[in-house]
Each structure stands twice: as C-alpha cells, then as structure tokens.
Amino acid sequence: MADGYASDSDYFASYADPGVHRLMIQDHTRTDAYRRAIENVAHGKRILDVGTGTGILSMFAARAGAAHVDAVDSSAIIDVARDIAEDNGLADRITFHRGRVEELALDGDYDLIVSEWMGFFGLAELMFESVIDARDRYMRPTGHMLPRHLRLCVAPVDDSHVHQDLGLGLWERPVYGLDFSRLLEAEVQSFITAACDLKPASLLGPEVDVLDLDLDHATADDFFFTTAATMIVERDGTLHGFGGWFEVDLVPNVSLSCSPMLPPTHWRQSFFPVRPFPVLENDRIRLAMNAERTEIGDQRLPLYFVDGEVIREGTVVHRFFYRHHGSFE
Ligand code: SAH
C-alpha cells in the first residue's frame, strides 16, 4: 500500500469536491459522535488527524484544548481547510501537511491518532491501511487510536423492497413471455454490493459479528477477515440476502453504529444478495464469509465471499456460494 494504488489520483481528486465533505459533515450521527469523542479525550494531547478533509476533526480537537494537531490530507481540500482554521482562530494549534500520510516525514510521538477512515461496510476504500501505517510509525506506545475498536456485523434479511430495488425481481417473472429465471443466479453470482436502507423488521434474526478488531493493535491484514458464524432465523420468511454494517467505538464510551436499529448514517447498510430462499423459524444459517484483496477492478474495493447453508432440524436444506464485489456506495 505504501506505493499507493493505480487509481489513487482519482481517489484523492474525488475528495477535492466540497460536496463530498458536505455529505459527511451533514451526517449528524457521524459528525456529532466524533465531536463528543474528541472532546472527551483531546485536552493536552498531541494529535495526528489522518485525512483531515475540511479540517473539522482537527478543529474539534484544537477547540477542546489539544496541545497540538498535525492534520494530513493528500487532497486539494486541505488548502481550504488551512484557511478555515484561520477563519476560526485555530490556525496556531493546527499544522496542515498536504501529502499521503505514508510519504510524509512527521515528528511523530502522538498521544492520539484521529481518523474517519471508514468506507461502505467499513472496509471500502482500504483507507485503514494508511491509518495503521501511520499508527505503526508515529503513535507513542501509550497512545490510542480514535476510533479504537471496529466490528463488522451481518444479519439475515427478508426485504422484498430491497430485492426489487436492486432489480433482481425482474428475472423472477416471465420476460416478454420468456423464462429468464436462470439469470437471477447468474447476476447474484458476481454482484456488486449495494447500499440499502434496511428496516428493523427486515431482519430475520439477530446479527453476528464477522470481524472484531482492536485498532490500537490490529495489523492491516487483520481487516481481510475469514469467519464462520451460525445465525438463528427467528421467523418464517424469505432469505433475500445479508445486511452488513459496521460499528466503531471512537473512545470507550462513545460509539458510532450503522445498525438498521439506530438512527441512519450516510453509510446506510450494505446488501449481499442471494437467490431468494424460503426459511422457517428456528432454521440455522451457517455462514462462512471472507473479505479479500483483489486485482480485479478497483483495488480499493475488497472482494467478499459469502458461502453458506440453511439447516432445518439438523438437515441441510439449501446451499449457496457467492462472490460479491465491494462498492463505493
Ligand atoms: N476527517 C474529515 C474527512 C474524512 S474523508 C471528516 O471527518 O469530515 C477521508 C479523507 O482522508 C479524505 O479527504 C481523503 O483525501 C483523505 N485520505 C485518504 N487516504 C489518505 C492518505 N493515505 N493520506 C492522506 N490523506 C488521505
């Protein structure tokens, strides 16, 4: 990663757009959780803000009494951030550095590394690699990451609206009088995960954690998880796929979650479709899931393998195996 990905100039150009930063800052669940967390811990600390964007997290930290903040971004937005800090009388406490954090030579020895690096389903964009690299080079042994902990959650979903919105329902009815149902399996087979808005009632059962990482210590490879979990179906319905989301503990007492049970965020939830299958209360879904690096398409998007079986009264009644591409939305 230290050398960057082929498409990185596009990646950083996309963050030069103020509209992208507006979408993030307008996400009150996100931005206010960071504000509260930073205000809890920033006082007197030497802080590194990886991917400062408009500088908002650095300004929260400076305003809360940080000893000093180094703010880094490789996108042109940082040139505006510098002026915004000036406008707010905070310029003397924040030093802005334009460049990839991997390529800069900073003074190091930070008490706290703050970053809002999460993409869709947490992992998209792979920005965690840059943040982990910065931690290994610059965080003092007693320091902490903010966020400090990451969980990825997956739950079985029955939601015909999401299924129809993705267009998959088309293949289930005659198309110009022809049977196209075979294309449903084919389309789901290489699906690009999609953002969706699940309702609490869409869940067929409770979520399971597919990844649980202590960000003060995790390696970048730890994010490419392999996991096996058993889910319990709590009502009769149709399994349309799996909903995924992330939760982070920013500091021990302030969390940010994209659960469909909680107020919405701009990340929404991610959907991993399957060919619809009828399930019954008390069925078990055995799910093996993994996230891998890929050379296919955009290298900043992981590939997800979703492999499972539905077990009814001890007997396997259905098997599935899908490969889904990550997505920027
Ligand atoms: N912290 C801001 C912006 C978050 S968006 C906020 O919370 O609103 C993530 C930012 O990280 C983008 O501006 C992007 O350009 C920057 N970024 C991503 N990878 C980076 C890297 N390796 N080095 C420097 N900046 C990076």
Key structural traits:
single chain; 329 residues; alpha/beta; six-stranded antiparallel beta sheet; 35% strand; binds S-adenosyl-L-homocysteine
Helical stretch tally: 8
Report the principal-axis shape: elongated
Largest sheet: 6 strands, antiparallel
Unreliable stretches (pLDDT < 50, length at least 5) are none
- Helical residue percent? 10-25%
For the terminal residues, how far apart are their CA atoms? Answer: 22 Å
DSSP E strands, number: 15
Mean pLDDT: 95
Strand fraction equals 35-45%
Give the ligands present: S-adenosyl-L-homocysteine
Rg on CA atoms, Å:
21 Å
SSE-based structural type: alpha/beta
SSE succession: HHHEHEHEEHEEHHEEEEEEEEE
Question: How does this structure look, described?
Answer:
It is a single chain. The chain is an alpha/beta fold and 329 residues long. The chain has eight helices and 15 strands. It has helices at residues 8-14, 18-26, 28-41, 56-63, 77-87, 128-138, 160-165, 182-189; strands at 46-50, 68-73, 94-98, 110-115, 139-146, 149-157, 194-196, 208-214, 226-232, 237-251, 254-257, 269-279, 284-292, 303-312, 315-325. The strands form three sheets. Strands 6, 7, 8, 10, 11 and 12 form a six-stranded antiparallel β-sheet that branches. Helix 3 (28-41) runs parallel beside helix 4. The protein binds S-adenosyl-L-homocysteine. Residues 12, 15, 21, 24-25, 51-54, 56-57, 72-75, 77, 100-102, 116, 127, 130 line the site of S-adenosyl-L-homocysteine.
